[in-house]
Design brief:
single chain; 211 residues; alpha+beta; 4-stranded antiparallel sheet; 4 helices
């Protein structure tokens, strides 16, 4: 695949490390090495970013891994794996970012689920905005929330997609809300995507769990 030019926008090194370890768990070490070579990121093999909060993991590299995943496993298979990796990524991010976001004890608080969702989504968006170059906001509607990413690391510079492609973010949101709710699953649908030509990547999160 054609290399994606560097964006100059970054997630933390720790985010990149956690993401790569999640893909390693899903694909195996050899599978991830094949993925990184296809994404023109062979330099990351056995040299994952350090576990620090320095902004050093380029959005373009994250996107390249996700594009390579689709090329290796097809759009459906690749996006399915991306959802799983996103869910796994949340678990490790919580361990490293939970206190920073102020949500580490949110699941145990004796408050209504809707209030937990309001607090948790706002805190997660703030954490991304404060620790990375991602621009995220949360809008509350009558029956849903919109998680909006205006500078998206999952589809950086992608164009011409026929449908939204940020499945890894869907997985992250699924994992976060399952944890937050004590095991419930929520309907989450990416309705807008920069890769399709939209100005932002919008994820509609239903307030009522489906299970």
């Amino acid at each position: 695949m054609k290399p994606i030019p560097k964006s100059g926008y970054f997630n933390t090194n720790n985010f990149g490390r956690i993401a790569l370890l999640s893909f390693e768990d899903a694909l195996g070490k050899n599978g991830l090495n094949i993925l990184l070579n296809l994404a023109s990121l062979g330099a990351l093999i056995d040299h994952y970013p350090p576990a620090d909060m320095v902004k050093g993991f380029d959005f373009a590299d994250y996107t390249a891994i996700l594009v390579a995943l689709e090329e290796l496993y097809g759009p459906r298979g690749g996006r399915g794996l991306a959802v799983g990796a996103g869910r796994a990524t949340f678990k490790d991010l919580l361990a490293h970012y939970g206190e920073l976001a102020g949500v580490a004890d949110l699941v145990t608080r004796e408050i209504p689920l809707l209030q937990k969702m309001q607090i948790g989504l706002a805190a997660a968006a703030k954490t991304f905005n404060d620790s990375s170059d991602q621009l995220t906001s949360v809008e509350e509607l009558e029956d849903s929330f919109i998680w909006r990413v205006n500078r998206c690391p999952a589809c950086w510079s992608r164009q011409g997609a026929d449908k939204p492609v940020c499945s890894v973010t869907v997985g992250f949101l699924q994992g976060s809300l399952k944890w937050l709710s004590g095991g419930h699953e929520f309907g989450i649908n990416e309705t807008k995507c920069c890769a399709v030509g939209d100005a932002s990547c919008d994820f509609v999160i239903q307030k009522q769990p489906v299970t």
